[in-house]
Amino acid sequence: ESKKMSSELFTLTYGALVTQLCKDYENDEDVNKQLDKMGYNIGVRLIEDFLARSNVGRCHDFRETADVIAKVAFKMYLGITPSITNWSPAGDEFSLILENNPLVDFVELPDNHSSLIYSNLLCGVLRGALEMVRLHFSPR
Amino acid sequence: MADSPLFQALHMEMAHALCAEQEKGLGALEGVGFRVGQGLSERLTKETPSFKDELDVLKFLCKDLWMTVFKKQVDNLRTNHQGTYMLQDNQFLLLSQLSNGKQYLEEAPKFLAFTCGLVKGALSNLGFDSTVTAEVPVMPSSKFQVVIQKS
Question: Which residue, of B42, B45, B72, B112, is most buried by count of CB atoms within 10 Å of its CB?
Fold first, then answer.
């Protein structure tokens, strides 16, 4: 029960933040950019918390990285396990599918925000966190 | 589980990002807190019996709301019985990542604005208009003064 409230607290806070940013910025592109930037800063800090708690070692390839992100990190912070699909032949690109994204609970986007990427913070978090373990990539 | 590191990190980042354009920033932070306070008070009171009086509502804030957001209860609640309340938290979670010295005391308002809004929003949803101000006597403790507006 208290875990559920914690997660709702985060969801509510995030929702209120996006609402505020939509007021502050004229267009959705700028909101997306701001969310990504904030996510990046959070990711940079969160990776330390993650490494300290999870005890996972160094990943030897990108597939292992994908596994850790989906099965350990997402599970730990958001309580979900996204599925990993769409591997590119070279093994340098994959997709994470979030079937039940907790960030979008209680959210209904008005029609005039069609280009808003609501959960863009997550992309920034991934980018920031992975950069700290010397992996440069571009989530979208 | 989205436990508190994620909320703490988001709050920290929000405080920095929204206050980058000063002045308006604190108001914006308070606004975000207000909306969260409204939402949380709705969820938390879903199954509780209705409140007896004003003091009962304040006690709910100090216990249930504080527990949900800050993982502890308010340490001290005082009142003059005329609509003014003082909530004191000796180990305020949102200041826990700052140095305990005096060098960041000036920055403190940034980290309190969200919570002022939170309290105000929760009270507003339970039927009370209020003004909420905060101060930091010594890091990492904080005092919130709540004045209920009589209409």
Answer: B112
Pair of tokens at residue A93: 């690109």
Reading the block at residue B77, the tokens are 């609640």
Residue pLDDT, tens place only, A113-131? 888 999 999 999 999 999 8
Give the three-state DSSP class for B132: strand
**Over 60: is that where the pLDDT of B2 sits?**
no
In total, the C-beta contacts within 8 angstroms joining chain A to chain B are 88
Residue of A9, A22, A23, A35 to mutate for B, most B C-beta atoms under 10 A: A9
If you compute the radius of gyration of chain A from its CA atoms, what whole number of angstroms results? 16
Mean pLDDT of B90-117: 87
Asked if residues A9 and B7 have their Cβ atoms less than 8 Å apart, the reply is: yes
All residue ranges of chain A with pLDDT < 50 are none
SS (H, E, C) B48-116: CCCCCCHHHHHHHHHHHHHHHHHCCCCCEEEECCCCEEEEEECCCHHHCCCCCCCCCHHHHHHHHHHHH
